[in-house]
Design brief:
There is one protein chain. The protein is mostly helical and 456 residues long. The protein folds into two domains: 354 residues, Na+/H+ antiporter like domain (Na+/H+ antiporter like fold); 46 residues. 71% of the residues lie in helices and 4% in strands. The chain has a two-stranded parallel sheet. The protein has a two-stranded antiparallel ribbon with strand order 2-3. Helix 1 packs parallel to helix 12, helix 7 packs parallel to helix 9 and helix 13 runs antiparallel to helix 14.
């Protein structure tokens, strides 16, 4: 089977910088995955402890937010799932925008393999779930096993160390991002109520506000909170899930530095020279250094594209704060109140479990290999059928997005608990199997790659 020997992420200086950015992204995701796992464990233990009532009471506690007459009182659970998770979706949108501009999705040839793999990883799990849930009562959960959790999947892959080929890491990240795109589209089209046109008009006003600010070269990220908030409210009013405002805002973020009146390189040079002069002549007066530091900061803003600076600023907060908080608020499944005597709850659980554990690797591997055989795509360097199976297993870690979709799919507490428990168990199984297979596959790969060098 043919493999692409060209590695665009390391073949030129720009690619090298992109790969460095990818390494930083993966590092945050891997560390965030550990925090996410701890939060999920705490939530599960708390919900099944003698203090379980406090767990439910906390997330249903009313919280009022607003200014003046524009106030809203919702549960803490709502503000986390529909409010804070908008920032999570913003980071997802930023990553999608960057990858489309200059990353793994920037050309059709580079995007072909993850697109094919992701399509198989969405279609097959959905079909498996549908096979167990033909009843309209439970069929709404068909999209639950189609998602991949980037943080957990990358975290497991990071445990395998440097032995993992770069092509495999890029493929997993690109596949997870495309999975997120698919999940976003699914939420927009299948888990939103009847759309109100006035709400869409409000969203359009928010989009125009973003474009106007960009036209005015407004560089402060905080300024975009206003039109972003308008988009969020418009989607909520329209009946579309409001977190999609984050995705839209991320996709609208510029991928090139905003131009200014002065050359940023010259501005930075003048600021550094000014800093040296003032630091040398006024060692005791720190206030004299404020102006050159501000000049240097403005030059930095002109040098770095907003899509990179905003993502770098938000990503740690999302990975270490928002996602663990989401897990804490949503992973607390009470095993005492859960019964699989109800055939509907059983079918939901089986559909989700088998969809993630069996459907994901089956869909990713078979569809990708079939597409490569008939010439629709070419496997990148380092990606073999065995390593592709590892990627497929890790793709079965649904967690964050799967639980998010489960909350939208089921209003019944019993059905929701069955779906969440199945997601947790399936993600655990997929992660363990993926880790074991990774150790076996990439250990052998390391031995085989080292053999030729030892012969010299």
């Amino acid at each position: 089977m043919q493999q692409n020997t060209y590695q665009p992420w390391v073949a030129d200086p720009v690619g090298a910088r992109l790969f460095s950015a990818l390494e930083r992204f993966l590092h945050v995701e891997a560390a965030g995955g550990i925090v996410l796992l701890l939060a999920a464990a705490v939530a599960l233990g708390w919900a099944n402890s003698p203090w379980a009532h406090s767990y439910e009471a906390l997330w249903h506690a009313p919280v009022t937010l607003g200014v003046g007459t524009l106030i809203s009182t919702q549960s803490l659970h709502f503000w986390i799932n529909d409010g804070l998770m908008t920032i999570f979706f913003l980071v997802v949108g930023l990553e999608i925008r960057r990858e489309i501009h200059e990353g793994a999705l920037s050309t059709l040839s580079m995007a072909a393999v993850p697109l094919v793999a992701a399509s198989g990883g969405v279609i097959v799990p959905a079909l498996i779930y549908a096979a167990f849930n033909m009843d309209p009562v439970t069929s709404r959960g068909w999209a639950i096993p189609t998602a991949t959790d980037i943080a957990f999947a990358v975290g497991i892959l990071a445990l395998l160390g440097k032995r993992v080929p770069p092509g495999v890491r890029v493929l997993l990240l690109a596949l997870a991002i495309i999975d997120d795109i698919a999940a976003i589209l699914v939420i927009a089209f299948f888990y939103s109520s009847g759309v109100k046109l006035l709400g869409l008009a409000i969203v359009a006003a928010g989009v125009l506000g973003v474009l106007l600010f960009q036209r005015m070269a407004v560089r402060s990220a905080f300024a975009y909170l206003l039109p972003g908030g308008v988009m969020w409210f418009g989607l909520l009013y329209a009946g579309v899930h409001p977190t999609l405002a984050g995705v839209a805002l991320g996709l609208l973020t510029p991928v090139v530095p905003l131009s200014g009146r002065d050359d940023p390189i010259q501005s930075a040079s003048r600021a550094l020279e000014n800093f040296r002069e003032r630091a040398g002549g006024n060692r005791g007066d720190v206030g004299e250094l404020v102006q050159p530091v501000q000049q240097l900061s403005r030059a930095q803003q002109q040098l770095i594209a907003p899509v990179l600076s905003v993502q770098a600023g938000l990503h740690p907060w999302v990975a270490y704060g928002i996602m663990p908080l989401f897990a804490l608020a949503n992973a607390g499944v009470s095993l005492q109140g859960l019964s699989f005597d109800n055939p509907h709850a059983l079918s939901i659980g089986l559909g989700v479990l088998l969809g993630l554990v069996v459907g994901k690797p089956l869909g990713i591997v078979l569809v990708t290999l079939l597409s490569a055989r008939i010439g629709l795509c070419v496997l990148p360097t380092g990606v073999t059928p065995r390593s592709l199976f590892v990627v497929g297993c890790l793709g079965g870690i649904g967690f964050t997005m799967s639980i998010f979709i489960a909350n939208l799919a089921f209003a019944s507490a019993e059905f929701l608990a069955a779906a969440k428990l199945a997601v947790l168990v399936a993600s655990l199984i997929a992660g363990v199997v993926g880790l074991i297979m990774g150790v076996i596959v990439f250990k052998n790969a390391a031995v085989s790659s080292a053999a030729p060098s030892s012969a010299h």
